[in-house]
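Re: [help] complex structure
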Amino acid sequence: MSNMTILNARNITNEELFFGHKACAGCGGSLAVRLAMKVIGRRSYVVVPANCMSAVGFMYPAMSFGVSGLCCPFASTAAVLSGITQAARQLGEEDYYVVGFAGDGGTADIGLQALSGAVDRNDRIIYICYDNEAYMNTGVQESGLSPYGTKTTTSPEGAKKHGANPIKKNMFEIVAAHNIGYAATASVGYPQDYINKVARAKAHPGASYIHVMAPCPTGWGAETDVTTQLAREAVDCGLWYLAEYENGEFRLNKNPKEFKPVKDYLTGQGRFRRMREQDFKIVEEQRDAMWAKIRKNWQTA
Amino acid sequence: MSRPDMIKDYQGLAGWSDVGAPVVKSGQLIETNAGWRTLRPVINAEKCVFCLQCYLLCPDGTLVKDSGKLEVDYDYCKGCGICARECGFGAITMEPEED
Amino acid sequence: MEARKEFISGNEAVAIGAMLARPQVVSAYPISPQTIVVEKLAEYVESGLMKNCSYIRVESEHSALAAVLGAVATGARTFTATSSHGLMYMAEVLPFVSGSRFPVVMMNANRALAVPWSIFTDQSDSMMLLNSGWLQVYVEDAQEALDMVIQSYRIAEDPAVMSPIMINLDGFVLTHTYELVDIPAQAQVDKYLPPYKTGNKMSIDQPLGVCIGITPDLNTEFRYRQHVDQLRNAPGVIAGADREFGEVFGRSYGSQGGGLSEKYRCEDAEVVLVTLGSISMTARTVVDKLRDAGRKVGLFKIRFMRPFPMQDLLSLGDQVKVLGVLDKNISPGYEGTVFSQVNSALSRKANPPRTMNYVGGLAGREITTRSLEKIFSEMLGMIRDGKAELPPDPNGRVKFINMRWEDHE
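Output below.
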């Protein structure tokens, strides 16, 4: 870590390896992919399951990735990554990187088993989960990472409940519980933090995992120009956090002295429109409980 | 070359030669995204301090820093407006596209 | 390694065949009755018997074929093995492999599907995936299993075919039966099977998108190409691979007749039974016995279900009056799958035989010589004055054999 050059906007390559894609204007997921590809570079193989990034990137006869890529079965991202990395090694390839980009559903729901297997084997793969908190490619359905109160087409507002019920599944700690060599959370609202975490994942000799918050203006009910601002606000109000897991230790990268109000973050988005004061309170309680544990158990900045 | 060029008048679809296994050449673009835009970002060079925050935050990679001066790739900019909103110096304004 | 003879099971024969073919990536998940294949391959990789090969221990069959997909898409020779529910679980990945035109070789231990649960053999699993775009071969003994693993790479990797192959072995009956098997020398196998080279792969120098999506206006052309390559090219490539195999190893599997099927004593037969897999061995002895008694019966053994031996069926002589199909699977509510396929082929014939479907051997139920004799004698009994008279009820032409209870009616 210490002897790695800190990447920033100035020194990062001009080269675009995810370009000309058909993602919605202001798409946070495509930003997460674009930035990661700039760090990972040309000597790489990309795997994307059935999701927005494959739908907007692999459109025969156009291909927005500048490197080799495979559009895999939804559940299989991590397993396909393992196959590629082992094959490239056996074929005598050197200095190559294998990276997968799956969404929240493709990671925390349908792809969780394959991810667990690959992390357990510690194959040299980089797995990036871009989290937009619902199944967006199919038109906004609830996933295991939709937070409390999210309105989606399968968690509609009704008399019995309004929006998604459970607490967001804790993917970062689920992955860490596999004793992974390197895992991190990030946000497209903090791009410099994110690209440097991708660089660390790239340098790691085993399996690595990055969970990057990537707002979807279309699915979140927001304007196209607020994507990165929302991603930053989520961190600043404590509903998301920037952290790393390495050598068996959790490390918090950003420890806000005080949180910005969750209400400001939530009311800016159509998906939380139905939320009332009591809901904001529930969200705050969930947040405070999470942070109490984090601050007690993790190394803090 | 920091980004792929669009292939104008792509001819690969005629006949079997291109239709063996379903594969596609990486970095191959056959059309632009300019038509999506209703607003276009315009950079005020006097206000721009080249901090490149917008460069990092553009989902489409359409802010270009190659020349040492910030430019917009209007072929692929979709006009989302993130650059203008995030610019701390008021150097980018979103202006309506003329028909 | 030198050529030698060993007393081994069908599973071991498959594992040794795979070892000799020098795959670079193997990924598989254990399931009865395939498990020994997985164990052996893991052992060969660990002990260095298989050099330059990665064994990827996965958490499911879905991931087994997914890992193989990633590996073959990178240009590696690959192998996997499964059975029954494992095949069902990996089913989603099968058309990814075949549609991408990747030459994966897979062994499937034919086993029944739940429910009722059973670990014993029938062919319900592979028959359900006839439309997956994989070539399918059904072998009869351990020697053929070993030989077909090696041949399959030649067939699958041929640029005119570019399709994956599923090698089917009847569970337990073949996978767990020990036989004396000729194991060829590595040098001979290397001569027969050169390393896999392809342009259909991802690479760093020539980056390519694979397993891609294609819009309706071009999608069909890719599917058509896959279809015609299998239909027109695969039979010739299969025959050629077998012929050359015979020249190198001194054994072959019917390439003089094309290799998709085997006709046994069909020349003047009036009644022919269609079988596939291990039961063919029993059926041959029954044919011999009935022939000794002067009965004009024959056997048509299907080796490949894909490509389907349509031409071989059409070339059966017009003297065949009744043709029975023994199906170790049932499409519930209709008929056996092989029966449907055979009838479809015969419908292209000017004077087709009448056809009967015998469903049996489900979930390990034994098919005895006695029950095969009964089938033959029933079909012989349908011929009166040189004409076949079949049960008038169309559904009566699909019969379950060896039932404990008669029809529930």
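Residues 78 and 97 of chain B are 11 Å apart (CA to CA).
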